[in-house]
Amino acid sequence: MYAVKVGCSAASTALRSFLRPGCVEVSANCRTYSSSQRSARQTGDAPEGELPVIRFPRYMQKIVDNVKQVRSKNKINTVRAGKLLIQSKNPSLNQYSGYVLGKFEQPNLCSKGWQHRKSFGDYFSINNVKAIPPFVVDNQKEGTEQKTSFEDLHICKKLVEALQDMNIRHPTRVQLQTIPKVMRGHNIVCAAETGSGKTLCYLLPVIHKLQAEEASEGDTKVKQKIHTVVLVPSRELAEQVSAVSTKLCAPFNLMTKTVGGGRGVGHIKMVFKGPQPDILVATPGALVKALRRRCLDFSELSFFVIDEADTMFDPSFSDMLEDILRNANIASKPSETRGLGHKAQLLVVGATFPGGVGEVLSQVTDLGSILLIKSKMLHCLMPHVKQTFVKVKGADKILELYEALKMLQEKKGGAAVVFCNKSSTVNWLGYSLDEMGVRHARLQGEMPAAVRSGIFRSFQKGMVDVLICTDIASRGLDTSRVSLVVNYDFPESHTDYIHRAGRVGRAGGMEDVKVLSFVSHSWNVELVQKIEIAARRRTNLPGMETRIHEPKAKMAEE
Question: Which of 157, 291, 166 is nearest to 229 (CA)?
């Protein structure tokens, strides 16, 4: 038994009055007393020099032991190792980058109680623990003395010089993986992080091959048929890809044209009058109209590119995509892409792996011939981008947004993109910011084509520093000058979150970038918790496609 010794006889007498039969006597020095000694202590006749023993119940001892165990566990979880990965309003929920969760260990989430209305005002951040984006080749880490150049990828000299004029000097990881395989004639499905330079993955080898064919055939050739088609989901992305292609094609006298929807059949016919372009950048709706009216011919097609594949294989576009692919003679192996009667090489690229790829592509080519290129960080949160989540009431979001934009303006730290889920919210938010004196531009899908044209280009040129938009601006658009992304409305899926967050931290873009997300509704909390779990466990976001699935066999009709 254990003894608790009290130095004050008055205190021991007071505590003894609370004792009752059945209590335990414990001694700090683990000495056991006989019944006579115990009786002497209870009557106060303890030997001189020894303190009286205080008895206390067993259940109190159990409570003390439990508290000690809990405290010891908490000390293990708060060991400081590495940079601070998760930073919470409640410091006890912080997690450092050096701490690794066990396989069956349940993380203590900052957003655990966010379903309750009392959680408004809570927040947490996923800090940027790396300075270099994962898609940039770090030579010190790789152990090489000199960076790989585009000339090492056997790109022609004039094309390399055109890249240098655009201040692009070294390939990214995904370009190193993809360009050599495209040059060999393989059909490719490439899925890599946003901002990693996927546009150049297909434009560089395409232009290199087209200029080689142009040089061998001479300048007397009359261009009557299109050699390359690049299919993109929006007019803004079509204009962007066309601008990059035009700069790269300038030294070789190759022509690039753009055709987008929303401008009528007359505009589409005007695009295809005269010599046919070497590279056509088109949206699905406009290209379907052109094919139905026989405005273009795919018989000499060498390359068919599908950009932003996760959107293009979405049910809203998949039917049109199937119609277009039926008109293109897609090769099944590299040898079919060369010589007379050659077939088109298929290139599919995107930042998230598209679902439904197998069902569509199996109708036009052999799935076994397609090379799949995936980055290691596919579907993961970018470690070089700080991401903050704030639980805030819907009525307070406009004030929080104003404060964030004001701080950005004071720091003069680049531009901001504000995402909303609906076109009506874009318009309402625009009117509110007008009243607050915040200069901005708006972009949403319900705008007329004449109004919508050029809005994003003016934002890219720096005419305005704030763009309010729907997810129409989250796919593929170059936002190198953007340092802040605000999810005014929280996205509805992991895919949308990845693409929105990918507007910052791009190759050649701003440093010290941030994503700020407002969480107002209870139905958004589940998605926030999945994002937080993925960050704490350092895994990719759940429920995302990672490979091409063979199409399911259709049941025979009875």
Answer: 291
Q: Are residues 203 and 112 in the same domain?
A: no
Residues 6+ apart with CB under 8 A from 557: none
pLDDT in tens, 8-52: 444 444 444 444 444 544 444 444 455 555 555 555 555 555 666
pTM of the model: 0.80
Of 44, 61, 78, which residue constitutes the final position of a domain?
A: 61
- What's the DSSP call for residue 219? T
What does the pLDDT look like over 121-180, one tens digit per residue? 999 999 999 888 888 876 545 555 567 889 889 899 999 999 999 989 899 999 999 999
Q: Are residues 49 and 118 in the same domain?
A: no
Are 128 and 149 in the same domain?
Answer: no
Same domain, 156 and 297: yes
| % of residues, the chain, pLDDT over 90 | 49
78 falls within a domain: no
Length of the chain: 558
- pLDDT value at position 102? 87
Q: Which residues contact 455 (CB under 8 A, 6 or more apart)?
A: 236, 441, 442, 443, 447
Where b means 16+ CB within 10 Å and e means fewer, 331-369 reads bbeeebbeeeebbbbbbbbbbbbbbbbbbbbeebbebee
**Total domains in the fold of the chain:** 3
143 and 123 share one domain:
no
Instruction: Residue 481: name the closest of 417, 415, 407, 419 by CA.
Output: 415
pLDDT tens across 236-277, in order?
899 999 999 999 999 999 999 999 877 778 888 888 887 889
Average pLDDT, stretch 85-112?
92
